[in-house]
C-alpha cells in the first residue's frame, strides 16, 4: 500500500522562508498521519530563498533588522539569538562572527539563517506525532489542477528519494489533499536593461553567486552605478566599501529615499493612537487626500513625541505607521482602484522607509561614504530610462530626473532585485497555468499578489475558494494591504510570514480533520446553532483556548501530547451538545475543538502587541537571561 493511501499529503511549493516556516508549523500542529512534501526548484534556496541563501550572501550581508527580531516563531521572540549563541556550528565562521555573542539589538549575518531554519525544520521533524512525515523534494511545479478530493500538481525534474511515486525524474503528477504556494518573490525584467541583459558589466541579481563574485572581483577604482537607493542597494555598496573600494558609487533612485538607521538599543514597540478621522472622508483627489495625510501624520507624530517621550525620535514615524494599520483598511476602501494603485506605485518606497529602518552595521559604512562632499557614494535622483553599451566595454546609464537628463558612464551597473508584484506579468509556467485555469486571480484592488480569503485560500474570479490551495508570503501582498493595513514591505516580510505560517497550517490541519465536504457542511450547520452560546463565552472555553495556545507554541512532542489530552478532556466537559446520535456529539466536540483552535490562532497572530508582550499575555514567557 502506498504512503499516500495511508495518509493525506500536503504539498508545499517553495522551500524558502515561507515554505519552511509553514512546514515547521504543520509538523507541530498535525495530530494524525500526514505527509508534508516540501518542494523546491533551486536546491541552494532550500530553507533560505533568495534573501538568505549562502551563495548569494557573503558574511558582510546582515539582516536589515536586529537579530532579536529574526526568530521564525512569533511566540518565542529570542529563539534565533539563543540558537546563534548556543546551537550554531561556528567551525567555519570567520571573525568577528565566530567569536561574537549575539544580542537582541545587534546585527547578524543573513547567511546563517539558512542553518537556523534547517535546524528548526529538523527539530520539528523529530518531534512530530507518529505518522506525520516530511519529504524534501527537488523539482519545479509547472501546473496545478483542482480535482475531487484535492489537487494534482505537475512537477518537472522531480527528485525525491523518499517520495512514493513511480514518476521520479519528472515530469510527474503529484496528487495532494492540499497545496500551499510559497513561491516567494518573482523577478521583474527591467525594460531599461533590455540592451545589456547579458553584458558582462551588468549584474541583474546581486544576490546570486555570480553577482557576488562580480562585485568582489571588481577593481577598487572602478566606477559603479547601482539602480536603487534602498536596502538591497546598500548591500551591494557596503560589500564594495568594506572590500576597500575607492571609486565612485552612484545610487540612482527615482524617489531619492534614504533609509534611516535604527538607534542603539532599539526595540520593536506598539503605541495606541486614535483613528485619523479626516482620512475617512470621501476621496476627492490625490493632492487633497495627501494634504489630509500630511496633516494627520504631523499631528500623530507630535502626539507620540508628547505622550511617549521614551520613544527615540528616529522611530516615531515607525510607531505611527504601525498604530495606523488597524484603521487603514477603512481608509483604503474610500480610494478608487486606479488611484490606490497609483499611490502605491508612487509612494511605495517612501512607505517602506517610514515603516522600517536598517541596523547601524549596514548604514554606517554608507553614511560615512556619503557624508563628505567628495565621498565615494553619491545619490542621483531620477528614473533610469535606458542602459546602453559603449565600444570600450563600459555601460552608460541614462537618467531622467527633476533637473533634466543625465548620463552616467560606469564600469559596472548593478540592478537591484526588482520584483514583479503583478501576476498578470509573471512568466513562470506555474503562474501562467494557474491564471489560465482560474485557480489564481491577481489582486484586483492593488495589482499586487493574488486574491485570497481570510485563511489565505486562493479565490477564483467568482470570489469563492478555487480549491484546496493556500498562499503564504508575498503572494498575499495586496490582501494584506486592504485587509490588515500592512503597508510597504511589511505586507510580506518575516513578521507577515510568521503569521501566515501559523494560520495556514492550522487551517489546513482543521480542513483535513473535518474530512469530506459533507462533514464540513454539517459542522458549519452545528456552528451556526452554537452562535454565542455559553460554551464559547464561559471560563471553560477560555481555559481550553489557553491550553491550545500552549500546544501550538510547544516544540516537544511529549508536552504537546499531554496538552492535547488535557484539551480533549476540557472540550468534552464544555457540554453535551445537541441531542442526537453519538456521531452528532462527536461532530459537536470537533466543532468546539475547531473554535478553540481558531481563537488560539487569533491570539498567536495578534499584531496589536509586540512578540514579547504576546508571550507575557499568553503566559508562555520563559525564564531566560535574554528576556527582560
Automatic annotation (TrEMBL):
InterPro entries, A to Z: FAD/NAD-bd_sf, HpyO/CreE_NAD-binding, L-asp_N-monooxygenase_NS-form
Ranges of residues in domain FAD-dependent urate hydroxylase HpyO/Asp monooxygenase CreE-like FAD/NAD(P)-binding: 12-184
Domain of life: Bacteria
PANTHER family: BLR0577 PROTEIN
Record's protein name: FAD/NAD(P)-binding protein
Originating organism: Kitasatospora cinereorecta
A Pfam family recorded for this sequence: NAD_binding_9
Amino acid at each position: 500500500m502506498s504512503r499516500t493511501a495511508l495518509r493525506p499529503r500536503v504539498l508545499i511549493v517553495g522551500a524558502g522562508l515561507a515554505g519552511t516556516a509553514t512546514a515547521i508549523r504543520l509538523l507541530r500542529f498535525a495530530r494524525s498521519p500526514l505527509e508534508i512534501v516540501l518542494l523546491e526548484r533551486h536546491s541552494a534556496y532550500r530553507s533560505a530563498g533568495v534573501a538568505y541563501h549562502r551563495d548569494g550572501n557573503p558574511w558582510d550581508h546582515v539582516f536589515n533588522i536586529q537579530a532579536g527580531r529574526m526568530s521564525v516563531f512569533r511566540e518565542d521572540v529570542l529563539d534565533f539569538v539563543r540558537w546563534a549563541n548556543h546551537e550554531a556550528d561556528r567551525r567555519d565562521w570567520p571573525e568577528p562572527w565566530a567569536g561574537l555573542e549575539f544580542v537582541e539589538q545587534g546585527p547578524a549575518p543573513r547567511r546563517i539563517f539558512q542553518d537556523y531554519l534547517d535546524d528548526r525544520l529538523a527539530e520539528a521533524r523529530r518531534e512530530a506525532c507518529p505518522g506525520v512525515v516530511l519529504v524534501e523534494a527537488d523539482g519545479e511545479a509547472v501546473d496545478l489542477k483542482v480535482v475531487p478530493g484535492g489537487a494534482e500538481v505537475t512537477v518537472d525534474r522531480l527528485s525525491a528519494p523518499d517520495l512514493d511515486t513511480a514518476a521520479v525524474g519528472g515530469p510527474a503528477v503529484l496528487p495532494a489533499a492540499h497545496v500551499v504556494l510559497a513561491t516567494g518573490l518573482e523577478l521583474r525584467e527591467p525594460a531599461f536593461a533590455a540592451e545589456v541583459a547579458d553584458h558582462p558589466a551588468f549584474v541583474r541579481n546581486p544576490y546570486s553567486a555570480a553577482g557576488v563574485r562580480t562585485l568582489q572581483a571588481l577593481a577598487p577604482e572602478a566606477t559603479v552605478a547601482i539602480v536603487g537607493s534602498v536596502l538591497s542597494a546598500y548591500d551591494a555598496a557596503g560589500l564594495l566599501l568594506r572590500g576597500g573600494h575607492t571609486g565612485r558609487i552612484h545610487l540612482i533612485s527615482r524617489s531619492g529615499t534614504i533609509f534611516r538607521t535604527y538607534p542603539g538599543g532599539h526595540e520593536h514597540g506598539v503605541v495606541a493612537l486614535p483613528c485619523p478621522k479626516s482620512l475617512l472622508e470621501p476621496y476627492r483627489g490625490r493632492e487633497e487626500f495627501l494634504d489630509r495625510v500630511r496633516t494627520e501624520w504631523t499631528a500623530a507624530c507630535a502626539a507620540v513625541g508628547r505622550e511617549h517621550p521614551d520613544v527615540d525620535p528616529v522611530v516615531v514615524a515607525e510607531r505611527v505607521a504601525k498604530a495606523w494599520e488597524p484603521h487603514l483598511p477603512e481608509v483604503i476602501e474610500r480610494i478608487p482602484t486606479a488611484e490606490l494603485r497609483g499611490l502605491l506605485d508612487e509612494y511605495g518606497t517612501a512607505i517602506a522607509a517610514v515603516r522600517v529602518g536598517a541596523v547601524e552595521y549596514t548604514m554606517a559604512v554608507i553614511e560615512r561614504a556619503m557624508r563628505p562632499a567628495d565621498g565615494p557614494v553619491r545619490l542621483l535622483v531620477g528614473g533610469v530610462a535606458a542602459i546602453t553599451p559603449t565600444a570600450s566595454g563600459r555601460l552608460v546609464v541614462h537618467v531622467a530626473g527633476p533637473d533634466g537628463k543625465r548620463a552616467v558612464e560606469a564600469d559596472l551597473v548593478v540592478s537591484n532585485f526588482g520584483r514583479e508584484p503583478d501576476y498578470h506579468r509573471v512568466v513562470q509556467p506555474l503562474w501562467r497555468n494557474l491564471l489560465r485555469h482560474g485557480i489564481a486571480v491577481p489582486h484586483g484592488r492593488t495589482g499586487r499578489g493574488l486574491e485570497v480569503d481570510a485563511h489565505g485560500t486562493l479565490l477564483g474570479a467568482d470570489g469563492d475558494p478555487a480549491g484546496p490551495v493556500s498562499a503564504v508570503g508575498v503572494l498575499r501582498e495586496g490582501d494584506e494591504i486592504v485587509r490588515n493595513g500592512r503597508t510597504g514591505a511589511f505586507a510580506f516580510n518575516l513578521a507577515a510570514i510568521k503569521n501566515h505560517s501559523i494560520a495556514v497550517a492550522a487551517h489546513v490541519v482543521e480542513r483535513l480533520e473535518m474530512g469530506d465536504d459533507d462533514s464540513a457542511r454539517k459542522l458549519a450547520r452545528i456552528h451556526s446553532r452554537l452562535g454565542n452560546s455559553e460554551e464559547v463565552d464561559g471560563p471553560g472555553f477560555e481555559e481550553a483556548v489557553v491550553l491550545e495556545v500552549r500546544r501550538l507554541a510547544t516544540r516537544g512532542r511529549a508536552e504537546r501530547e499531554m496538552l492535547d489530552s488535557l484539551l480533549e478532556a476540557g472540550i468534552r466537559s464544555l457540554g453535551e451538545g445537541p441531542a442526537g446520535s453519538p456521531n452528532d456529539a462527536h461532530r459537536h466536540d470537533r466543532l468546539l475543538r475547531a473554535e478553540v483552535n481558531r481563537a488560539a490562532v487569533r491570539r498567536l497572530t495578534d499584531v496589536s502587541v509586540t512578540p514579547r508582550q504576546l508571550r507575557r499575555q499568553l503566559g508562555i514567557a520563559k525564564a531566560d537571561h535574554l528576556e527582560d
